[in-house]
Structure formats: C-alpha cells, structure tokens
Write a sequence for this structure.
C-alpha cells in the first residue's frame, strides 16, 4: 500500500507491505524493516533495528493523526491517492479564500467583539470563549470582512463549532 | 468523627478520601451534574448530587452542601482547597448545623482573609511586610509621595489601589522616572478598574514566592513544617513547586518559620495553614504576602520531605488532638528533596487554551520516588466548568538534581490521550538552565517563554522519530483499510471480544 | 557507562530502566518470544530477542545475552535478581567480553554462593551461624549424636543432609523423643531424596527471617542500610516484607549490621548484597543463613525508609565511585516505616493455582505514600513460563500502623481484570491480629491459613454488596441483550468510536 | 426484563426496568432505585440511595459473572428463563454422573498419575500440570473410574482443556 504523508508541511511517500511477520516500510525511498505488536488502546510496540519504541496513535479531525513516539507527539497526515487529491483541492494549505474561525474547545461565548460586515485586521479579536475559568480571545486569521457571524453572547458551544467567517 | 463529607471535587477530593479510608472514616462525595461520572464520586462510600454544573449552584451552594451532610449523617466537612475552603460564612453554617468544619475557626479565616486586615495583623505580630503606603496617593500629593519613595528607597512599585493582575502596576527604578510612570499607572488603573488611585510599595527585586507550611492545634501549640518554593508561575498561577528552596538557608528557614508561627498564633489559628512570603532574591529579606487558611495544592512536597500525611493531621487536630510533633521533631525528620508539577488540561502550543474533553486513555508514571495525585482515570470526562488541573505529579529523591531527573522521567511516562495537557511544557521547564540552577524568581516562565514553546524541527529531512511515527501510522492505517474491506462477521463481535482480540493479535510468535 | 543491557524481564527490568533514564544512560532490553509485547521491552531504548520462551534458552542463555550486548554496543549488564544474577560464570563471561557486570566480583559470588563454603566464610569472619553438626550422623553414631544434641541444648532440629523443603525435617523438643524422631526423619529423607542421612542443628524457636542490606564499594568501604523483616512466607516464598522489624532494637540492628558488613568485607564484596539471618523470637539470638549477592525483590522498602535509589548506587559503584554515605549518614536518614506486598498471578482460593493470561485492565493504587513497581499494564499477557509475580506494591508512612493501613487501602485500589491475583489474600494477611502486633515468625501464614481463606458469606440472605453486584450484572446483561437486538449499523462502528461511545453513554444529564 | 441469578448456590430473581433515567431493580421482591453510569472497561458507577460503588463486571465461562463491588469480587450467574432451564438440565449442580477434570490454567503436563480404566478415590491425584515454575496436582472430584484420559506427559495444554473424565 502506498500513502502520502504530510509532516511539518512537507509531503512524503510511505509504502508499506507485510514481510515475514514484520512490515517493510519505505519512506521516501528509505527502507525500514519494522516489527510491530499491537498493544491495548491504539498503540503499537515497534522494533526497528534494535530501536524499541511504543507509538500511540490518536486520530484527529480531517485525517490528522497525532503519533506519540516515546515521549514526543508528532502531528502528521496520512492520505491515500484519493484523499490526497481531495486534500489539495480543499485549499487548506493557504490563507486564500474565506477562513472559518471555529470554537477551539467546548465552552461559553462571553463576548462577541465584531458585527457581521465589519472590516477586521489580521490578529484582531473576534470572539471571547470561556472554559475552565479562563477567557480565550479568538483572533482573525487574516485581514478581511466578517461575512458570517454565528457566535451569540452567553451561548454554550461545542468544540469545532463555526463561530465566524472572515473573507 | 466517623463520616466526613468532602466538599470538593477532582484530585483533592480523591486525596482526602484516601486518608479517610486509611483512618477507617467513611466518606461522602458531593457532585454536580457535570461530575456524576467523576472519579471522586466512586472513591467515596456515599455520594450526593448538589446541583447543576455551574460551581455557584453546586460546589459553592452552601445550603445544598450542608443538606447533603445532614442527609447522609456526616459529622464533619473537609473543604479541600478552593470552593468553600476559605469561606468563614460556610464554616459558621457548618458549626450551626452541628458539623465539624475541618479548618481554622471562622474568626481566624476572617482575620487572614481580608488583605488589609491580614497585613495589619501581621504587622502587629511582628511579621515583616513589604514597606509601602497605607493609603493611595491623594490628588496633588505627588510631592509627598516622592518623598516617601525616597524614604523607603528605589526601586519602588506603583500599584493600583483598586485591583491586581498586573494592571496599573509600574516598576520605577530611578526617581527621575517617577512622574511618567505615575501618569501611566493612573491611566491604566482608571481604564482597568474605573479608579485611577495608585499607591507606593517598595519593589522586591528578583522576587521569590516562598511559603511556609504551619500547623496549629486547639491547645495553643503551633509549628512550621518547612518552606515551599513556588516561583515557577505563569500569570500568577503556580506550575511547579519544590522543597527545600535553593535560596533558603537553615537560618532563614528558622526565621521565616518563627514569623509564620507567630502570625498563626496571633489569630489563634487551628489546623493547616500557609504563610506566603515574597523573598528578595538579592537581599534575602522576606515580606509577608498573605495567609492561606486551608490545605494547599502543593502540600505533597511537604509530605514527601517530612514523611507526614497532612490530611491525617488535619483530621486529628479537628478531633481535638494535639500536634504529634514538636518543632525539634520536624528538624530531625526533614530530608531530601521533592518537586511537584501540576498537570493541566491545556495546550501550551495554542496559548494555553483549555482542553476539556474525554480522556481516552491515561497512563500514569510509577516506580521509585513517584507520587501521583490524580482526579481522573481512563475514560474520565474533564468538564469545561472547573479548574483545568487534572492531577499532580510529585517526585522525591535525596538530592535536588535527582528529584528533578526523576520528575522529568515520570512526566515522560505520563500519557493522557484524548485531550491535550501541559506535560511537555513541564518537561521543558525542568530543562531550563535557570531552573536547574535553583535560584530562579517569579519571572522565570516569562523570561523562558520562547525557549518553552514547542521546538519546531529544523530542516525538511525526517528525523528518526518521525520515520517511526510514519511507520506506526502506516501500519495502523493499513489495518484500518483492511478492516473496512473485511467481511462484516469480523465486525459483529462485542467490544469485549474485540478488546481481547486486539491486544492478543500478535502477542507471541 | 553510557548504555546498559538489562538481563532480566518483568518489574525489575522496568525498575532498572527507570533509574537508567534518570541518570541519562541508554538501556537495552532482552526478550524471549513469550515477551515480545512485554512492558519491559518498550521501557528500554533498544530491545533484542534472545530466544524461545523457556528461560534456559533465552534469559539464561549467556551467549545470547552477551551477543545482544555486543550487537547494541552496551558497555555494562545489570542482571536484576534471579536468572543470571548470581552466576559467577556469567560475570566472568561479561568481563571477558569487555562488559561491566553490575554486581560483585565472581570470586565473592562463588564464596557466598555455595552454602557450606559461605557458612565456613561466615564462621571465619566471626558471623554467628546456627550451631550444629558439620557432617551427617554416621551409621551407628546415634549415641554420639545424642551427646552432641545435649551439648548444644534442646530443642534441636533433625535435617536431611541431601535436601530441603521441609522433608526429612523434625523438631525434637525433649531428649526422650530423639530416637523416634530420628527414625522418622531418616525414613522421610530416604523416600524423598533416596538418601537417609540426617544431621543435627540447634532449633531456632519462633524463627524470624530478617535480612540486612549491605553495600560495598571498590575502595574497600562497606555499610549496612537497615534490616528487612521477611517472615511472612508461604512455602519459603516471601509474600510481605517490611522495615524496620518490630523485634529489632537499635542495638540489635547495629550488631546485625556490623556482622553483615564483616561478612561482606571477608569476601571483598562490591555493590548491593543481602545477608539473611534467622533470629530467635525468644532469645533474639541471630544466625547467618546465606548471602544473596544481588539486588533483592524487596529492596523498595529500604529505599522508602532511607530515601535512596539503590540501583543508582549499584551503577555508581560499578563505575568505580565511592559509597556516597557513611554509616552515620544512614543512621541520620533512616525514618518511618515501609511495607511491601508481592502481587502474584495466582488464585489463593484454588490452592494458589497460577493464573497466567491476558490482563484486560489494570488499575494501580496511587496517592500519598504509595509506590508501584509493576511489570505489566492493561492489555499485557502474563506468560505461563516465568515467575508469577507481576508487580509489587509498597507503602510508606511515619508509623507501622499507618503504613499497614495505607497498604491495605492501596491493595483495595489495585484491580487486575482478566487474571486472578492474590490481592485479597494480601489484605487478609494485613488484617491478621498476629501480623498487626508485629512480632510474627515464619510460621505466620501456615498458622493463619484457615483465617486467610476467602470467607464464605453466612446465611442464604443476600448482603447489600451482593444486591449491588446483582443490580450491576442485570444492568450489564440488559444492555447486552438490547445490543444483540439492535440494528447492525450500531455494531459497525470501529472499536475506537465504540470505546468513546461506551464511556460517554450517560456521562452527564 | 426478568433474570434468574445464582449466588452462593442459591437462586434469586432479579427484575430490571429503566425508570426516569435510572433503573428500578427488584431483587427477590425488594426494590432498589439505582443510578448507573458507564465507565470504561465494562464497569459502572452505581448510586443506590446515597451509597456509591464502582462495579466491574467480568464475564467468565458458562454465563458466570464476576462482579467486583468496591474491593470484593462476587461470583454469580445471571440467566434468563431459557438459559436457566438449560443450566438445570446440564446437571452441573451435582456430582452425579461423569465428571470432567479440565486444565485450570495454560501450562505443561509434567506427570500423568492414572491410566484409563483405573479406579480412583475422591481426592486422588490424576495429573500434574506445571505453570509459572509451580507444579499443580489435579485431584479426582469423586470416587469412580477413569473413563477418558486425554492428558499426555510433556504436552502443552490451554486453560479449560479436557484432561480426564471420572465416571
């Protein structure tokens, strides 16, 4: 199987095939022979040469994976051909086009700092969300105009809820 | 005292319940609707709902808490820290309901609870406070104020009379800068608190936040149990605490301890209390800040270095018992070094954004010298309504260097899946050279902020760890893809069987 | 010393790896085919397969172990306990391969490894041993033997010359019983070992098994670190250990310590070692049994009461370092009380039947004074090939009573699902009045066996707990039944989603 | 739903029905109102009156359940009408009829102490199985004759494997 991976904004290719009870993994042409054993809770114990690590895999939104290797988390994306095309088409790579500002965590909207139609600067505060006794100001990712405003003061929001769109 | 209601949640409720169990005392938990499935509920023998998620309608609702105690026949209430722990009205309501409040008498709480009153009490008891004006600078009083400033000596601080949090606060190092700083401070104070009044305090240079644990019984005895260095703070919130402090000599410790005990005795204090001091990093002069009339979050480091159980002492003293130790016993028993890290559900990489949610898996550190105080477990929900601290990790060793290495190792073993926590940030703090040296002040985290941000890997080439991460991801994805292609029969197993199968998949060859 | 190969498995391999990590030393695990997925493999930086499941083909296969060290560039080997830890041949092979063996020199291991030789060495060093015959009673030597018995004084033990384990062993309390006891012992010995020869030893009454931890460096210094009371034994297997012993006074401790240090010095001992003694519960006389030339399973109780990391000391001494403490430092630092319980995968209700298998879930105890040393985690397989001990739980407190209460509480928090363990049995031991009093001998568990069996509930009526058990079972079963009746779409979720769903099912209302 | 439960050899009836977000549980006619929340790993947090317990449920073989309540394990069986009839028909309640002796754990057979056709006394040793460095002698549950012998010296056996039948 061949996957495309995005690590720190760079694209890499990962080919994988079972081989003699292990996995042959070729990353950008470099070959590893990896012995993998499943552990509980979406984790694997890997042996690659003598190196021994536990890797915990945590799937996020949009095909994002967080992989804990030893003590450090590596965020990455793993896509097959089809998903890679979709991913590229979605334009998420750039700040071109309208940008959504979502609630980064479940909480309560304590202040809305803009109105629909307002012109905003990059980094300008849009909405203040409170969770765990702390207020967090969400800022505009770009200069532009507030084209959608879904945030309502006093309302509870779930993580990922669309609050503002700046175009 | 046969049954104690624990008027708190999270790790401190679990911690108090553990000591009660060891003492053969039954426990009652209280919970809000957001906490029905919380760990502290099942760590107690009984549990009573006290209201909806918002604290003021549940954990802070005195009537509900006292009703829960009555309903279950509890004869005492342990308030933990936060919530109702420093509320004299609640302590009185307990007494009125015939319940023992495990803490100081309400009078002592009041005398230490109000800042200006506490400062006055401290001065009476001969406890040093930061020299400064007792009243704000009146209109047209600039000239007198400048005289006062010269009298106590520069550097000085200008502080807003009406509020805190750093707003309306200005450091003035030289008399020539007084006027402009005063104008700025007034403006800031006016805008932040709608009250532009400002007063002068002597500036403490390289300030350390160091506190003394005191304990007093109902028989008039009081002792100190050593200090805690709490200068690792982010926005006035403690992050890492240790004991002993690298800058506290045995003489300074004895002197601060004596003063703290005097402060406690001055208000006829009973139980566990903490006197917070600001210590000047250059002169080693110390100044009373305030007294916390309850158990502190960071009490475990004191327990590790004294070998005591402070909650047991609290209960025994509330029962009317005498302090089990004299001050000499403390000196004989203090040993080694302990460091505690607070684990927060927050994302340091996203400006410490809170990260409530479901903990899919929790792996705690273990082994020599490791102590976990955790309010959650695998599967726990971290609600968005309360403090983001989900637990504490404390380590003990004979030397500071070993204790820090141990905490660093233990933080590496600590894995919280499903939400984001600050464990990497905490490890980063332990790696700071300034922290390693031991003589750091409250500015440490602000100065180190850049070095504490997650380090972006340099260069386009993948590191060895990134290669392994990709290999693990590919193996996982390959299996997901194969599973989707597998016949549905494989998917009809119960989750139980599935869990077993997954873990057994390639156990042995 | 930059990289250490840990020639062991389970909890001790994990424990050694932790200290190495704290010291910045890289680690290499070895594993048999039964242990590929074992916890110790992923606690080390590297891991090498050394053979099939059977120990003699893997963990005991010296060539494979040394090859693994060479392959990974390790410069030292830590043997843990058991396996190759007391094998002088292996220690020599390490030296030959240029590897530091973290333990005593092979000569010291040999001198202490063979029982009769060790006894001779001990006598030379002035260490008391149980008085007795050096040779078995020859045919027709009964009269002389009886004289000898009168000389050392009754009660005496008759012991089989060829074996142990209680077979061919007879206590004789009165000279008139000598003849019949002798005949019985001979018969039993003959049938058990095909060798009927018997010898006389003085009987130690109410025997305590107490050992002294010693440490020696390469510079000729040696100290003791207090005793461990190990009399809680089932069939000569230690189950619970504590320090200090209730019957050891400071004078006796110093005397036993002095003697143990002499024994160590007599064989030019280096590193961690333990002198085991039998202590007469009446006279408090003590007799050398043997010296274990390695770290002991029960070393954590000594670490808790000294505040030390003994593995760190082992490594520093193997590097040529000097003992960091003098004997006076030990005396100044010893404090409090520690108790350790060994958690075995066995079923006490079924005659301690071993219980290997998959651990579906593991919940360890935490909180004040609790230390876990565990070789497994949730999902781990406990293989049937090795020792059934899966971990140790040790607790510290200022007093013995509190330490026991704490261990009792912590054992209650310890839950191992999927296999059967002895945690309830361990709690039962802590509840025995004789244990609580502290002055118990090695007969404790045999005498308490009946009281330690799971208590059958009396009467047909259900207890409150049984009602709750039924309620929980019915709720669970109802859901299983409803799930089977549910449309298949609900069953096609991934296990991942399912886990989230299950835990979130009725989180908050 | 109505279940039949066997606890310490005694039969009990358990009726259960959801009621206002809780469960109404009637055990031998005694009613409990139980609030239950699922935890991870086949456990529930129960509140019954003020009493708070965590119950861990571990299904064993033959419909056996082990329920950990607080710190004590309660072995019990929970059966619906149909399974109760089967259970009674299987005759497991008594020592009448042929008795199977199974391997109680995975291990290795180190000694076989009887031959097929031997007459054995109750409590007589039949087979010795080794696991975890310990030998365990399996004894005859009754006096009778060895009618089946499946144990072979040196063989590895899984837990629950049929080794001997005594009739």
């Amino acid at each position: 199987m061949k996957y495309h991976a995005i690590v720190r904004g760079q694209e890499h290719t990962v080919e994988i095939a079972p081989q003699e009870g292990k996995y042959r993994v070729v990353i950008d042409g470099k070959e590893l022979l990896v012995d993998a054993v499943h552990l509980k809770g979406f984790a694997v114990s890997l042996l690659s040469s003598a190196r021994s690590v536990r890797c915990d895999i945590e799937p996020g939104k949009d095909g994002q994976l967080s992989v804990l290797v030893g003590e450090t988390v590596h965020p990455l994306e793993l896509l097959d051909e089809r998903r890679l095309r979709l991913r590229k088409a979605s334009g998420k790579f750039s700040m071109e086009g309208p940008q959504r500002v979502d609630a980064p965590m479940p909480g309560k909207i304590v202040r809305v700092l803009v109105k629909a139609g307002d012109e905003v600067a990059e980094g300008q505060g849009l909405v203040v969300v409170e969770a765990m006794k702390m207020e967090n100001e969400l800022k505009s990712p770009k200069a532009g105009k507030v084209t959608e405003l879904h945030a309502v003061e006093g309302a509870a929001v779930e993580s990922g809820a669309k609050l503002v769109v700046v175009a | 005292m046969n049954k104690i209601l624990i008027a708190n949640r999270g790790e401190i409720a679990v911690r108090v319940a553990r000591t009660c169990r060891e003492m053969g005392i039954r426990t009652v938990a209280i919970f809000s609707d957001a906490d029905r499935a919380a760990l502290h509920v099942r760590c107690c023998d009984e549990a009573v709902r006290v209201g909806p998620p918002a604290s003021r309608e549940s954990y802070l609702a005195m009537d509900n808490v006292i009703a829960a105690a009555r309903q279950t026949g509890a004869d005492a209430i342990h308030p933990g820290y936060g919530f109702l722990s420093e509320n004299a009205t609640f302590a009185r309501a307990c007494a009125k309901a015939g319940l023992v409040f495990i803490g100081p008498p309400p009078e002592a709480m009041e005398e230490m609870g109000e800042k200006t009153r506490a400062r006055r009490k401290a001065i009476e008891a001969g406890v040093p406070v930061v020299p400064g004006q007792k009243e704000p600078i009146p209109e047209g009083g600039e000239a007198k104020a400048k005289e006062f400033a010269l009298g106590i000596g520069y550097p000085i601080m200008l502080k807003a009379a009406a509020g805190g949090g750093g707003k309306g606060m200005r450091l003035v190092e030289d008399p020539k800068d007084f006027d402009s700083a005063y104008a700025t401070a007034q403006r800031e104070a006016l805008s932040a608190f709608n009250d532009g009044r400002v007063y002068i305090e002597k500036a403490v240079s390289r300030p350390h936040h160091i506190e003394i644990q005191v304990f007093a019984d109902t028989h008039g005895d009081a002792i100190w149990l050593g200090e805690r260095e709490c200068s690792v703070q982010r926005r006035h919130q403690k992050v890492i605490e240790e004991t002993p402090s690298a800058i506290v000599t045995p003489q300074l410790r004895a002197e601060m301890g004596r003063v703290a005990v005097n402060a406690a005795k001055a208000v006829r204090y009973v139980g566990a209390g903490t006197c917070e001091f600001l210590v000047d990093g250059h002169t080693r002069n110390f100044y009373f800040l305030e007294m916390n009339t309850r158990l502190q979050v960071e009490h475990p480091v004191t327990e590790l270095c004294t070998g005591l159980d402070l909650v047991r002492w609290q209960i025994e003293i509330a029962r009317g018992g005498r302090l089990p130790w004299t001050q000499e016993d403390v000196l004989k028993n203090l040993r080694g070094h302990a460091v505690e890290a607070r684990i927060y559900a927050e994302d340091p990489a996203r400006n410490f954004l809170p990260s409530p949610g479901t903990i899919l898996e929790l792996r705690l550190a273990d082994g020599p010298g490791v102590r976990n105080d955790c309010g959650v477990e695998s599967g726990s929900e971290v609600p968005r309504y309360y403090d983001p601290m989900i637990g504490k990790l404390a380590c003990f060793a004979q030397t500071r260097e070993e204790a820090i290495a141990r905490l660093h190792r233990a933080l590496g073993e600590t894995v919280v899946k499903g939400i984001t926590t600050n464990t990497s940030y905490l490890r980063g703090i332990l790696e700071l050279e300034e922290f390693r040296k031991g003589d750091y002040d409250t500015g440490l985290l602000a100065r180190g902020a850049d070095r504490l941000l997650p380090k972006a890997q340099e260069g386009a080439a993948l590191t060895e760890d990134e290669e392994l991460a990709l290999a693990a991801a590919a193996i996982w994805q390959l299996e997901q893809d194969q599973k989707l292609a597998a016949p549905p029969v494989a998917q009809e197993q119960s989750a139980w069987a599935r869990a077993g199968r997954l873990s057994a998949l390639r156990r042995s060859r």
